[in-house]
Amino acid sequence: MSTTLDNSSAQVHQQPAGTGGGGGAADVEMTNAAPVPRLDPSPWDIFSEAKAHLDIQWERREALIKKSREITRESKKTIVSLQRFNSSQRYREIKFATAARNKVQKMFTEISSVLHSPPEFHKFARDIRPGIQEFLESASFLHYFESGTLLSFEQAADLMRPTGLVLTPEDYLFGVLDLGGELMRYATTSATKRELQVVTAACRFLQRYFHETLAVSPCNEYREFVKKREVLEQSVFKVEQLCYHLTVQGDEYLSLDSVGAGEGHGGGDM
User: What are the pLDDT digits (tens) for 81-130?
Assistant: First the structure.
């Protein structure tokens, strides 16, 4: 009885071994089989994909540059209209300039619809920066006529917030620095009308503005800031000269008037 059990158990143990041996032969056959061809794209297709991607990016960049130029053009129109600012029609002039500013804000909204995320804004920032800076120049010029003060960064950011675009400190600074040239031209026009009070107010504003910019020590990365500050300094000097000439001429006119009045009085006595 024990012998029979031993033989049967041996047979039971040998059967899995035989089965395992058959599986090993199958594995060898699968290993030696021909490789199945993969459906990977050709390595040359990467250039076609890159071309399609770059074409899309180029079209978007061209659209943004075109819109930025339109914004620049509209902002310049606002500045030109403010250069002819008539204090007797102050309400009408400011209302017209405000409407023009709101129109430009809507144009910025169209740009924002093209940029789907903040990284894309920074990617195309160089293409739309001229429009942003020109808009801030016109907005700061309008703000000066409204309040006689400088448009702050927070106020500028509030103007840009409805557009969905991000205002960087660099764009703000480079935009409002151009205000000096526009104020100098406005002061020159006012000087031809002998509006000493207007010229004096512009002169004091520019002097304070230039003094505050001296606190900034830009690195080589912002050489444009240094150039714009030099232009601002030249504008300050020109407006100071206007104030000087108007003051001297005013004193001369007063002296001539007093002399003429004295001569007339003396002639009456004779």
Answer: 888 877 777 778 888 888 888 899 888 888 877 776 666 677 787 888 89
Domain with CATH 1.20.58.190 in the chain: 55-167
Residue where the block lists tokens 């158990």: 9
Residue 133 contacts by C-beta under 8 Å, 6 or more apart in sequence?
171, 174, 175, 178
* Interatomic CA distance for residues 197 and 148, integer angstroms: 13
CA-CA distance, 103 to 183, in Å (whole number)?
Answer: 23
Answer yes or no: CATH 1.20.58.200 is held by domain 168-258: yes
Residue in 136, 142, 186 with CA at minimum distance from that of residue 156: 136
Q: Does domain 55-167 have CATH number 1.20.58.190?
A: yes
Two tokens, residue 8: 């049967």
User: Other C-beta atoms within 10 Å of 236: how many?
Assistant: 22
Give the span between the Cα atoms of 65 and 54, in whole angstroms: 16
Q: What is the pTM of this model?
A: 0.71
Q: Which residue type, as a one-letter code, is found at position 67? A: K
For 118-132, the DSSP string reads HHHHHHSHHHHHHHH
Residues of the chain with CATH 1.20.58.200: 168-258
Distance of alpha carbon 173 from the chain centroid: 10
Distance CA 6, CA 115 (A): 82
* Tokens encoding 153: 């960064």
